[in-house]
TrEMBL record:
Main location: cytoplasm
Cited InterPro entries: 6-PGluconate_DH-like_C_sf, NAD(P)-bd_dom_sf, P5C_Rdtase_cat_N, P5CR-like_CS, P5CR_dimer, Pyrroline-COOH_reductase
Pfam families hit by this protein: F420_oxidored (PF03807), P5CR_dimer (PF14748)
Keyword Oxidoreductase: yes
EC number(s) recorded for this UniProt protein: 1.5.1.2
All residue ranges annotated as the Pyrroline-5-carboxylate reductase catalytic N-terminal domain in the record: 3-97
Protein name: Pyrroline-5-carboxylate reductase
Keyword terms of this UniProt record: Amino-acid biosynthesis, Cytoplasm, NADP, Oxidoreductase, Proline biosynthesis
All residue ranges annotated as the Pyrroline-5-carboxylate reductase dimerisation domain in the record: 163-262
Pathways per UniProt: Amino-acid biosynthesis; L-proline biosynthesis; L-proline from L-glutamate 5-semialdehyde: step 1/1
Catalytic activity line of the entry: L-proline + NAD(+) = (S)-1-pyrroline-5-carboxylate + NADH + 2 H(+); L-proline + NADP(+) = (S)-1-pyrroline-5-carboxylate + NADPH + 2 H(+)
Cellular localization per UniProt: Cytoplasm
Keyword Iron-sulfur: no
Length: 273
């Protein structure tokens, strides 16, 4: 099975690296291209057995499964140019949330799926979100899931929860790394701890917390209960968080959904021309 990547920006590169280093696929089975071909060549320099192609058409010709890793508004014009190459035995996978599988199926005759990855997949961890088109056979679904099982926990989702699921899985690492950095900055500003030491302690804390949750010894609420002794230091800190955070996460979700709705509308206009 050969896998193609049209677009080797941040997420395309992360997927290629994770798939190769998890031994989910041999490097020689990867065919890739990018608008700026130097980006694909840079990956090839690290993994010389991979194949850099001149354009999207060449990637499709050599691949059984093709990942489209470009911006949402670049997908429609790209597919119009290459759809004659997308035979029924091939599978096209979009990794962007505003483009629905039904929209892809409206202009290509091949099998279609959407997989929304996360940067955590680079460490063979976290979740990848799956939505399969009606065109996608059971056999192809199993192949895609097996590919991602080596780098993530695949979870199938409905269109209705695409944005919020992406907020948690794909955007979540950025949101919580920002909060963790603010936590570190506050500690450095208000005490004698160095930036380096605070970052080390915070990083090890978040890794340990993840491992605790992974063991299922604690849930998020019970973990808080175990640490937060009534009337103690942690309780005082939680009270500040309750007072200061307010509806910040509700507002965050509202904001991402507003942007998502704008993106969906722009994509809809393209596909309905």
């Amino acid at each position: 099975m050969n896998i193609g990547f049209i677009g080797t920006g941040n997420m395309g590169k992360i997927l290629i690296e994770a798939i190769i280093e998890s031994h989910s696929l041999a490097p020689s089975a990867i065919f890739m291209t990018n608008r700026t071909i130097a980006k694909a060549a840079a990956i090839n320099k690290i993994y010389p057995e991979t194949n850099v192609m001149d354009n999207a058409s060449e990637v499709i010709k050599h691949s059984d499964i093709i990942f489209i890793c470009v911006k949402p508004l670049d997908i429609h014009p790209l597919l119009l140019n290459v759809r004659h190459l997308l035979r029924r035995d091939k599978c096209l996978i979009s990794i962007t949330s505003p483009v629905q599988v039904e929209q892809l199926e409206s202009i290509v005759n091949c099998q279609v799926a959407r997989v929304i990855p996360s940067i955590t997949n680079r460490a063979f961890a976290g979740v990848s979100l799956f939505t399969f088109g009606n065109s996608c056979s059971n056999e192809m679904q199993q192949k895609i899931e097996k590919l991602f099982e080596g780098i993530s926990t695949p979870v199938e989702i409905e269109n209705e929860i695409t944005r919020v699921a992406s907020d948690i899985v794909s955007c979540g690492p950025a949101f919580f790394s920002y909060l963790l950095q603010r936590f570190v900055n506050g500690a450095v500003k208000e005490t004698e701890i160095s930036q380096e030491k605070a970052v080390q302690l915070a990083s090890e804390m978040i890794i340990g917390m993840g491992k605790l949750l992974e063991t299922e010894l604690y849930t998020l609420p019970t973990l808080q209960e175990k640490v937060c002794v009534k009337g103690g230091v942690t309780g005082k800190g939680i009270k500040v968080l309750e007072e200061e955070l307010g509806p910040v996460f509700e507002n965050l979700i509202k904001s991402t959904h507003r942007k998502y709705d704008e993106d969906i509308e722009e994509v809809r206009r393209q596909f309905e021309k």
